[in-house]
User: Fold 16S rRNA (Guanine(966)-N(2))-methyltransferase RsmD from Streptococcus cuniculi.
Amino acid sequence: MRIISGNYGGRPLKTLAGKTTRPTSDKVRGAMFNMIGPYFDGGRVLDLFAGSGGLSIEAISRGMEQAVMVERDRPAQAIIKENIAMTKEASKFQLLQMEAQHALEVVKGPFDLVFLDPPYAKETIVETVTALCQKKLLAEDVMVVCETDKQVQLPEEIADLGIWKEKIYGISKVTVYVR
Assistant:
């Protein structure tokens, strides 16, 4: 895996061996960023199930200013730290080593871009988006990007957000919510 575009384009990304994380493939990540960007003029990104950190690092590479990455799995945290070091801009990243639901209690918004890619067996997107809205952690022009199994049917609206775009890539579905 590698960073696809932007300041870090072409740099390799480390991923965790085994099945504890499910990194978004280069192809899906590229398509996802073409849906939502593909480039940004500043802003903050929140990745609540960071895995290897690839989505947040790609967002910073493409112009976001700050990323908050949340990951509970210790081996995945070590991979994220290595991937952040590869950027040589560690000050743009914050890694919270905790459960996503706990992170919602401690992070400070607003966030312009949110990635939700929970483990497929534990779909918590509706509850998480609702909590993000209730806690006022989202910017007015926020995009919430959800990656799920293609079989998962998310509601047209969650809290005050509605589906803007939705596409299937192989076994994955990417759903983007906006206000």
Observations:
- The chain has a mean pLDDT of 92.
- DSSP finds five helices and eight strands in the chain.
